[in-house]
Structure formats: C-alpha cells, structure tokens
Amino acid sequence: MNKVFIETYGCQMNVYDSELVLSILKKEGYELCGSIESADLILVNTCSIRENAEQRVWGRLDHFLQEKRKRQDLIVGVLGCMAERVKEKLLEHPVVNIVAGPDTYRTLPKMINDIRENAKQMNIQLSRHETYADITPVRTDKNGVSAFISIMRGCNNMCTYCIVPYVRGSERSRDPHSIVREAKELFEAGYREVNLLGQNVDSYLWVDPENPTNTTNFAQLIELVALISPKLRVRFSTSHPKDMGNGVLYSMAMYPNICSHIHLPVQSGSDRMLEKMNRKYDRAKYMERIHKIREIIPDAAITTDIIAGYCSETIEDHKATLSLMEEVKYDYAFMFQYSMRPNTYAARHFTDDVPLEEKTRRLNEIIELQNRHSLESNQKDVGKVFEVLVEGTSKKNKEELFGRTPGNKVCVFPACGHKAGDYVHVKVTGCTSATLLSEIVEQ
Ligand code: SF4
User: Fold this and answer.
1) Which of 30, 131, 243, 281 shows a CA-CA span of 20 to 30 A to 20?
2) To test ligand 1's pocket by mutation, which of 81, 168, 200, 243 has the most ligand atoms within 8 angstroms of CB?
3) What total of structural domains would you count in the chain?
4) Is 63 contained in some domain?
C-alpha cells in the first residue's frame, strides 16, 4: 500500500477537506501514515486567511525538500486556499509536484498518475456545483465523539478584507439527504456530536433540481439532523448577522440536542467600519439579532470574531468596538489584528494605514476586555448544572475528563468511571477565564 501523510492548516473546513481527500485516495490504495519519512505522498492542505499561515507552509515546503533529496520519488502536493491563491508560484518550488484547488480533489488520483509523464501538475478550477456530497470522509479525529460535516462550500458575501470568495468560489449548498445520511452514519459509528460547517450557514438553501418547489433552508436542515437521535448533539458555524433569521432560533429552542451556542461574527462595533468591510449590517441590526437570540434562547452562549485596526480605523471606531463588546458581553471571541491579503477588495482599493504597533495596542485592549468578559461569564456558571458530552482525558490530569457544555464551554471533572462519548451532568464548582472546573452529579 502507498502511504500518504496529510498536514492541515487553517479552519475546520480544511480538516474536513483533508478527510475527504483521504477518502478519495483510500480508494486508490493509499493509507494514512504519521510521518513524512514513511510517506510516498505528502499533502499540505493550506490556509490563506493570514500571511503567517502562508509563511508556515513555505517553511514546511523547504523542510520537505530535505526529505525529497533523499528520495526522488517522493511526491509533494499543495492543496486548499493557498494553492488557489498562489498558483504557479508554488509549482516553482523544487519540492512541489502537485497544486490542487479546493474543488479539484476528485482529480487528485489522475494528477498523481500523470506525474510520471510530467513532474508538475496543477488544477485550480473552481466549480459552481462541487459539494463532494457523495464522498464519505475518512475520519482522522482522535476522540471518535465529535465530527465536522460540510453542508455548503464557497461564499458570495465579498467582505472587503476576505480572501475566501476568491479561493473557495461561489456558494453552493449540499443535498440535505446526503448530510443527514452522513450524520446518521457517524451516530451509528459512535459519534455523539456533529458540527455543521459553512462560511455562512444561514444562507444554506437546497433547491431540489428535480422539483424546484422542494427546498430546504438551514432552520429545516438542523431539525432534520436533530431528529436523528436526541443523543446526537448538533452544532453549527458560522452564522452571519445579515442572514440569521428567527427560524433558526426557533429550531434551536425546540430541540434540546441543538446546542445553545451561536457564533455571530461582528468584526467591528463601528458602522463606518462595517460599511467599509461590506458586512451588510449596521450596529443596530446586529444588536437587534443579539436581543432576539436572548429572547428566544435565554441561555444561549454567544461568541464572535473581531478585527482590530482595519483600513482607516480611528480611535473612535476602535472605541465603538469596545463599547459594543461591553453591550453584548460575549462568552468568547476570536480576535485578530488586520493583515491585508493580496487580491482582496481592500488590497485593491484601501490603504492598510493603521501602524502595526497601534493595531497591536488596540488588539491587546480588545483581548483584555474579552478575557474579563469570559471570566465573568464563567463565574456566572458557578453553582449551575450542565449536561456535558465527555470528549476525553484532561491534558493536565489523567484522573480527570473534559467535555463541553451546550454553550461550548470546556469543563474538567473527576472521571468517576466515565469515558469519552458518555453524557454526564456536572455541577460547576469554580472557573478560570477559559475553563469550568466541575464535578459529576446525579441527575
Ligand atoms: S462571510 Fe465574509 S468573512 Fe465570511 S467567508 Fe464570506 S466573505 Fe469571508
């Protein structure tokens, strides 16, 4: 059997895509291996969202070159967003044989075969239809409890800072029957949580090609998945404030196994910045969505993404972000300082004019505030009881397990004979800003 080593960078969608690629290659006689030294084929599934993600990949390619010097027949391929963005320049690297964009993975076996004829292969064609709906990914996660399912690909939103629409193409929704089938198979294999993935899940819309009046939207899709079993937890990301309707919130409120957590990226609290980012909502509309979430699902955890120092951001814009954070009090946030990506709308039309030290200062202020809010949010949970799905053994203490609350907060607690995949009820006894300390209680 040929051996493939896959290294994955970036988001959960890339993790899922690497599992798809493995499934395609398994049919061609490849099996996964754990080191580059034992691999016949090395694939790097890449991310272009920030410059340092790409720099790491260039560094890894240089590292693979040392291995290739020992074994000339070693094949190296670059997959994913960077393949789509950097294109031929990647092929110029002496170690690279294959450059394959995210919609071309079905052609990988042919590209590998064709290397005998021509040492370099590239396919970066984007598709309007490819969803890989018929391919069951080979799961490579370690815990066997929680898995990702891609429900759509691409994005039509064109946020001005974002590279995704250029490297992953336009939005396509996947056939809901294939999504439900995949979730059922995971449940039957022992998985107890599925995380439905899309760049903008709220715009998921399946139109049956045989009967265009037969459609499925995202609120209906999460119900279909939730109905597989009350013992299967359903999570999803990412929601978009301009598209998140009340239907999704009512579905979440109706099914206890749809986790009460919404990741609702705001990016900035300033209307001027939101317009410049082309987010298509303003602060008032965003806050209206937050109030609606709290009205329909009072215990929902709300998390977000925030960018510090976007093009032309003033101190007033930055203060607006801080004040919005104070207003919402997010449970958690992913916070970044802006890094301009080539080929985006911002790169073509705006100036990246906030000095680096000032971006870092603003980001630190945002992080400091969020850490305070995360701690306050966790402190409010002390004394409460949550149902937790056990994911595995705590890294710090082998006698303890860890799992997540429906709101996606990590809990650690003494094992008491339980194992990964069990549901337990825990009472929170203490916390840090990142973790709930707890103990199992009888329910
Ligand atoms: S919604 Fe905006 S930020 Fe998200 S992937 Fe699409 S373009 Fe990028």
Assistant:
1) 243
2) 200
3) 3
4) yes
